[in-house]
Write a structure and sequence with these properties.
Helix content: 40-55%
Structural class: alpha/beta
CATH class of the largest domain: Mainly Alpha
Distance between the termini: 41 Å
Largest sheet: 6 strands, parallel
CATH topology of the largest domain: Dehydroquinate synthase-like, alpha domain
Order of helices and strands: EHEHHEHEHEHEEEHHHHHHHEEH
Strand order of the largest sheet: 1-8-5-4-2-3
Bound molecules: glycine
Length: 350
């Protein structure tokens, strides 16, 4: 697994040089796109990466709708009809949904072909496209069927952020804050200062640091059996808050925004249970409030959010477990939290 990080030379040009190597001499490339990346990203990709100019492309629906077994089956059938073989390489050009589905299809086809992730969203660049988690949804629940299957290459080029809607960008900024909270206090401070100062410039070096942190965690625990859980800071709350936000009368939140809100709860409980300094909670709350309107939940809302939290895949022995922080850069996994603590933290978000 190789990650091409943003630097002073174009990441896509470096990808092109890599594809000229012996490993890819017999490869036939298919590019997986959705309607957005077909319209906005395919031309920049092939204009920088001449080795992909002859690639065939496959289009899937935008968003979670593409993470479907029936769509994976159609893609396998198309690959088969096109004569794809074990040297075929699937190039996933898109956000987390495209890379989750494309990785899944690659993992299953002929018992596993290679794939390359080219994330086009900020969340993809700092999280989803790195680490080899692939999945489709089942029975209305996210990521229920999948494989660990590492990409040959993840190529991160901030060029694609130019066409990204603000909401998507903000979601990615929250994932960056999460990554720095677990792994880089200096960059956490710097990004927070920037956001509090009213600047929303997503710096390439910060994206690179996030991708490096994620890659190091994945290397230490590729199958998510222990330390990789630190990447879920804010996510036990975030997933439940995201699901609840789609109820009637609520403001729908994307994944990154919901994680951003969930981080307030995680830091609140970190203060209560692990003696994280209160100033860290206060500062994070200020930063988050600059990026989004923090919700004011009622007691009834907290009961509904709790229903989702009880279903979290990371729970064990009937307990809800969270990642919390002892300090910035010092996460602790598998902390059991009781339901009253969760209610309390949800009521204190704002
Ligand atoms: N997004 C969390 C992980 O890759 O483990």
């Amino acid at each position: 697994m190789k990650t091409i990080l943003p630097s002073h030379t174009s990441s896509l040009s470096r990808l092109n040089r890599m594809l000229a190597g012996k490993q890819y001499a017999d490869s036939r490339f298919f590019i997986l796109v959705d309607e957005n990346t077909y319209n906005h990203c395919l031309v920049p990709l092939v204009s920088h990466v001449s080795h992909l100019q002859e690639a065939e492309f496959l289009e899937v629906p935008v968003g979670e709708d593409c993470k479907d077994l029936a769509i994976a089956q159609q893609l396998w059938e198309t690959l088969l009809e096109s004569g794809a073989d074990r040297d075929t390489v699937l190039v996933n050009l898109g956000g987390g949904c495209v890379s989750d589905l494309g990785g899944f299809v690659a993992a299953g086809f002929k018992r596993g072909i290679g794939y390359i992730n080219i994330p086009t969203t900020l969340i993809g660049m700092v999280d989803a496209a790195i680490g080899g988690k692939t999945a489709v949804n089942l029975g209305g629940s996210k990521n229920q069927v999948g494989f660990f299957h590492q990409p040959y290459i993840t190529c991160i080029d901030p060029l694609f952020l130019d066409t990204l809607p603000d909401e998507e960008l903000l979601g990615g900024v929250f994932e960056m804050l999460k990554t720095f909270l677990i792994g880089n206090p200096e960059q956490y401070q710097a990004l927070g200062d920037m956001l509090l100062g009213g600047t929303l410039e997503v710096r390439a070096d910060m994206i690179a640091t996030c991708a490096e942190i994620k890659s190091a965690v994945v290397k230490a625990d590729p199958k998510d059996q222990g330390i990789r859980h630190i990447l879920n800071l804010g996510h036990t709350f975030g997933h439940a808050i995201e699901s609840f936000s789609h109820h009637e009368g609520q403001q729908p939140l994307g994944h990154g925004m919901a994680v951003g809100v969930g981080l307030v709860c995680a830091l609140y409980l970190s203060v209560k249970k692990l003696r994280l300094a209160t100033e860290h909670l206060d500062r994070y709350r200020q930063v988050a409030a600059k990026l989004t309107q923090l919700p004011q939940y009622t007691l009834k809302d907290t009961e509904e959010i709790l229903t989702y939290m009880r279903q979290d895949k990371k729970n064990a022995a009937g307990e809800i477990r969270c990642v919390l922080l002892q300090d910035i850069g010092a996460p602790v996994i598998d902390i059991a939290v009781d339901e009253n603590e969760i209610r309390d933290s949800l009521l204190k978000i704002k």
